[in-house]
Amino acid sequence: GTQGSFVVKARASDALLELKDDLSLLVCETDPVFGTCLDPPNESVSLSIDTQESVSIGVFVRLAGFTPILLDAANHRIFLQFTDIEGTIVAETSVAIKVGLVFVLMQ
Q1: Cα torsion for 11, 14, 16, 22, to the nearest 10°?
Q2: Which residues, including other chains, have CB under 8 Å from residue 84's CB and lie 6 or more apart?
Q3: Under a CB-based contact definition with an 8 Å cutoff, are residues 56 and 41 in contact?
Q4: Is 26 helix (H, G, I), strand (E, B) or coil?
């Protein structure tokens, strides 16, 4: 792995930009054993990573309103970007996202 200081940020794919006002993406560094955030989730997290060190990152996606995101793995994605101190993207990974409607029955 690459050694240095990095900023980690999540971003939505272009196909999800129409939801940008309703979509919230937060990240945090997590404990690799328990998965809990080491600090509260934020829009970005700064990390210093040594050579061959692994880090664990949590991504939190919140969608306001009732707009579903259909399964379209090629287009509906959340990207996790690692940038160096100059802002150059040095690594990126992504995952498909799907959000269905949740119905609550009231009695």
Answers
A1: 60
A2: 4, 5, 6, 90
A3: no
A4: strand
User: CB–CB of 79/60 below 8 Å?
Assistant: no
Helices within 1-107 (DSSP H only): none
Please, which residues have CB within 8 angstroms of residue 93's CB and are 6 or more apart in sequence?
79, 80
Quick: pLDDT tens for 30-70: 998 999 999 999 999 999 988 888 889 999 888 877 677 88
d(CA 11, CA 81): 8
Listed residue (27, 25, 32, 36) closest to 8, CA to CA: 27
Report H helices in 60-100: none
Give the HSE-up count for residue 53: Cα atoms under 13 Å, Cβ half-sphere: 11
Entry pTM: 0.80
Q: Which neighbouring-strand residues pair with 57?
A: 29
- Rounded to 5 degrees, φ, ψ at 32 are -65, -20
